[in-house]
Amino acid sequence: MKETFRVLAINPGSTSTKVAVYDNENLLFEQVVRYSNEELAPFDSVIAQYEFRKNGILQMLADKDIALESLDAVVGRGGLLKPISGGTYAVNTAMLEALRLAERGEHASNLGGVIAKEIGDKLNIPSYIVDPVVVDELADVARVSGIPGCDRGSIFHALNQKAVARKIAKELGKSYETTNLIVAHMGGGITVGAHQSGRVVDVNDGLYGEGPFSPERSGTVPTGHMFDLCFSRQHTLSEVKKIIAGKGGLVAYLGTNDGREVVKRIEAGDTKAKLIYEAMAYQIAKEIAANAAVLSGNVDAIVLTGGLAYDQMLVKWITERVRFIAEVKVVPGEHEMIALTEGALRVLRGEESAKEY
Prior knowledge:
Largest sheet: 7 strands, mixed
Distance between the termini: 27 Å
Number of domains: 2
CATH topology of the largest domain: Nucleotidyltransferase, domain 5
Radius of gyration: 21 Å
Number of helices: 13
CATH class of the largest domain: Alpha Beta
CATH architecture of the largest domain: 2-Layer Sandwich
């Protein structure tokens, strides 16, 4: 079997595309291609950008003297597909059609699989996506909400959560599939997942109002007050949705989504900033403890990850409340590019089989 695999990883964002090339787990280079509003203005949809973005990636590879023929696989960020279980998926015709039609919504991540397939097919090498945000492995009991027809769903930071879960499982001398972990991804949105034997059996919907509030999102709010807000005629439906995701949380209370700015205010003696920031830590700890109940107390470790995990104040507040459950491990930042690459490598090495959409 081949010992070294070269993987091209592609992670499209709304106004940029992260590109990285790895030889096995060793990073050769990583770069971000940024696009101005003027450059994107001619395109009437996200999917219409794919040729433009693909050409930018190919030019970058040429500038870095990366021969296309040296690549063994291309892996893209997964988009808004139908709910699927976690893992590495081969990009196939059904997936391409769903991404192109944006059946579940327009998002830049939809471009990941399309561009990967386009480049991979030209080189006759495989193309994949890994653990998109739509990964849904909820236990049946976790889907029941209390209102028929309003079942709980699963939208979360699956790529980074599963990547750090695998990392911590390895540190514990176990496999991901034999480990019980609680993983809290803390960024602009916050999701806390119960990872049981390789499946995320419960997780809060970090996009539309579940779980802890975050720098930009409201999290769970009192339902009656939300109804009053919706029917007050002071806000349109789109404005209410923006309050839930975009203008909620720290933005609503403190006017910023930057945790570093909040810490500076606290250090300068701002008591309101301290109360709100500590309340966010409090809610994250509550969500972690709730997931301990999901796992019947059988928790090998608690993992704090995402950009906010760099903040020692926030980590300390959370740790003080949950360390009675299990050891708290901190893996700060987002590890999306290596996570995409590792998903492809597991298939290339024969450790897993690529799943079909």
